[in-house]
Amino acid sequence: MPVQPPQDLVSVVIATFNMGRYLPQAVQSVLSQTYSNVEILIIDDGSTDDTAQIIRRWDQHERVRVYRQSNGGQAQARNRGVALSKGRYVAFLDADDEWLSHKLSRQMPLFANPQVGVVYSEYECMDGEGRALPKPPTRMYRGRVTAALLIDNFVSFQTAVVRRECLERHGAFDESVRMGDDYDLWLRLSAHYEFDFIPQPTARYRVWSGQMSKNYRRRYESAIHTMRRFLERNPGLVSAGQIRAAWAHTYTGRGNNTLWHERKRAAAMQDYLRALSFRPHHWPAWRAILRGLITARAPQ
């Protein structure tokens, strides 16, 4: 019978804030992995719910380590988890999400390519009660993905596994980024490493009312700031045409959210026009303008 090569240790960082309701399911989804060489680092970022009582169940667990700190934000909590971890690879899981049991077994073989720094995958969606929700397929990319990432953050946080040396050489999460710190990280790493993916879902992402990511305006403002800073620090990494396409896509997306979530037609039209200033033939912006003029009825 052939001898199986030893599994590299994967450190799984779960930063949690007032997620006592879902945390046990997230932790159990990691402990149930068919890839067994994992450690879990739970960073309680100053929770005020029943998290303190819930995490006591893992105080003596051989594969789970629990740390508590004053509230410092998700980037700080994630960085503490990375700093305390021991694995050659680091993965992340939000406390309200879950992994599928085969996740690491499917993803880890892709790191046989030494150029790959990040492996991610498709994912499923569920509601607050764990019921499946419909989700369109994610368009994913492998290899050098910076240009594609500027257009869309297709690397789902709860599916990503990162080679530790990437974080040691180029830093982990920027604690000055209050929303979208993962996007900032993926862009920075994409300048130096290849990305790869598994087309099958390996995680379940929870869509519910308590999500930080539902703040659409802050999300876009943060993404725009991240893109500008990245491009300033990496001149010539992507072509001028790719940059124009990225800005056109971003401002069209922000316009759509401004129009349909905030019902602010004038502000949305400004974003559409800005998108067209970067790429006059950007059809999604023209289509959005037409739809906005026909259907929007919100006060300005």
Keywords:
alpha/beta; about 20% strand; nine-stranded mixed β-sheet; about 40% helix; about 300 residues; Spore Coat Polysaccharide Biosynthesis Protein SpsA, Chain A
Polypeptide structure, described:
It contains 11 helices and 9 strands. The chain is of the alpha/beta class and 300 residues long. It folds into 2 domains: 10-214, Spore Coat Polysaccharide Biosynthesis Protein SpsA, Chain A; 239-295, no CATH class. Strands 1, 2, 3, 4, 5, 6, 7, 8 and 9 form a 9-stranded mixed beta sheet that branches. Helix 10 (265-278) runs antiparallel to helix 11. The longest helix has 21 residues, at 240-260.
**Highest-level CATH class of the largest domain:** Alpha Beta
> What's the helix-strand series?
EHEHEHEEHEEHEHHEHHHH
Number of beta strands: 9
Secondary-structure arrangement, i.e. CATH architecture of the largest domain? Alpha-Beta Complex
Q: What number of domains?
A: 2
Question: What is the topology?
Answer:
Layout: E1 10-16, H1 23-31, E2 38-45, H2 51-54, E3 64-69, H3 74-84, E4 89-92, E5 98-99, H4 103-107, E6 116-126, E7 132-133, H5 146-151, E8 161-163, H6 164-170, H7 181-190, E9 194-206, H8 216-233, H9 240-260, H10 265-278, H11 283-295
Parallel strand pairs: 1-2, 1-4, 2-3, 6-9
Antiparallel strand pairs: 4-8, 5-9, 6-7, 6-8
Helix pairs in contact: 7-8, 8-9, 9-10, 9-11, 10-11
